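I hope you will forgive my troubling you with a question about protein structure. I am sending you one protein, given as its amino acid sequence and as whole-number tokens for its backbone shapes. Thank you for your consideration; the sequence and its tokens are set out here:
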Amino acid sequence: MMKTRLLLIVTIAALLLCACDGERHPNGRRKRTASLLTPKSSGNPYEVMVVCDDSVYQGFAGKALQTILDKSLLGLPQAEPQFHKSHITEKHYNHITNIFRNIVKINIGREYTMAKMKIDKDVHSTPQLIITIQGPNQVVTSQYITEHTKDIVSLISTTEINTAANEFYYEHNVKFAKKVKEMFDCNFYIPVDIKKMKVGKDFIWASNDGISSIQNICIYSLPYVSEKMLTRNPYIALRNKVMADNIAGEHEGAVMSTNSEFVWTKNISVRGDYAMEARGLWEMTTEAMGGPFVSHSRIDTVNNRIIVVEGFVFAPDKMKRTMIRRLEAALYTLELPKKSPDTL
């Protein structure tokens, strides 16, 4: 009887663990789902809960971390911190609070000979990221935090992007995805609520057509001429031409343009391939409309062309960080055509 009960418990535990993995997408991604062991995490995307004593939070180490979390996100029309932060002490860190989606713990103690960082995922909930930073004293720990600013930001941002992108694979605008496949022979998945669609020449624009805020995604292609197309100024010129041809304002002569003073570009890797990320501000000529945008430009070597995917937002008098980052996550789902195995 005891062996039977033990076997049953082990079997249930194994099934629960398997349930966390979920179904697998054709591209190899596995759906992350909550279970009894790791329930759905609390908190919103890009929210971070800091766990440490009040003296640490108000000291050198805590201030160093707060500086990182409070830094403004690049490419927005008004200053918005890249993360929303909260703080609790260790004694309040329990079965209720430990299911938060992004947790940064700071541990200070003489038992630590040096500062270091540990990463754990989906420990108490799904999705969840727990970063534990430990050090012998506040000065050493604060220096370590400052030196690893990019690592901390990248860990949280990348985890959030992967989480959102993974969800789009399993729930997305199917009509848009089919049209993208038909026109560009690419896979591209966008939020299901972005439904309104307009098709142009080598161009598709989709929008949620919201009342108080509008979220938009577009995809377009250009013949590849030279690598200079993937540099800042040529990119701006090409974007202005494509958007002017495809997105018009309410009044005659009004077209979408780029505020060239506020555009930042950098090279990134998407699925192991090169991409140019651009983010900045768009505006409508002769009209009081504008907002942030983010785009990825990638080289389709099979068809000798550049594929550009972009998300842009119009939301006057509203915070735009969460909206633009949601669209940014969708950009990472783009899958370019692959060469046939028989192609030399």
